[in-house]
Amino acid sequence: TAPTEIYTLSLHDALPILPISIGGIGTVEWSATYFFGQIGISTTMVLTVYLFLRTVQYILAILSLVSIRSR
Fold first, then answer.
1. 32: how many CB neighbours lie within 10 A of its CB?
2. Is the pTM higher than 0.70?
């Protein structure tokens, strides 16, 4: 149902700000697999997407840093 999904996504978005790990690494992926598993999405699919997004995030950060330093 819509309220359950909104609650799940809100809680998932709040977990990375907890001081449990550096940058939310591991915490975000764990919470995603748990919460999306509750609504029927496979663990493999969730981890694949989240690890891909994490990789893209780091690549963009590195490219931005290189771009800023070269100016």
1. 19
2. no
More confident residue, 17 or 35: 35
Are 10 and 1 within 8 A, CB to CB? no
Residues 28-68 have pLDDT tens digits of 788 888 888 888 999 999 999 989 988 998 899 999 999 88
CA 38, CA 33: separation in Å to the nearest integer? 9
b/e per residue 7-21 (b: at least 16 CB within 10 A): ebeeeeeebeeeeee
Q: For residue 26, how many other CB atoms are within 10 A of its CB?
A: 11
Measured in residues, the chain has a length of 71
Beta strands in the chain, from DSSP E residues, in sequence order? none
Residue 71 is given by DSSP the state -
